[in-house]
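hiii, so i know i said id send this last week but things got crazy w the move. better late than never?? heres the sequnce for the chain we talked about at the cafe, plus the structure i predicted for it. fair warning i was half asleep when i ran it
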Amino acid sequence: QLQFVQSGGGLVQPGGSLRLSCAASGFTLANYPMGWFRLALGKEHEGVSCISSSDGRTYYADSVKGRFTISRDNAKETVYLEMNSLKPEDTGVYFCAADLPGVDVQTMCLSRAHYWGQGTQVTVSS
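okay and structure toks below
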């Protein structure tokens, strides 16, 4: 069973930065496309960014392009989301997720991933 250990998140002022980490537990990260989703109060879940398992292809939601960067270190079995220039509308619970091997990153981010982490709160507020 795929499990994730998420870290990072918290409270930050608008314009600030945060980095989220997601470590794989019980599976080989390199075999799976990975991504980050968020759920904000009163909104549907949104695929923030996804990254392919091996060739580095990425997908970003329009709302975060140019501000967020997804990366993965398969040797460390960890996926990261670097978030810069944070805005209040970035507030939400952020979930690390994995999808089935071979799923395209855009497809993953625009639908609902197969495996989800426990989520971590990100609050952007002054």
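btw The mean pLDDT is 95. thought thatd interest u
miss u guys!!
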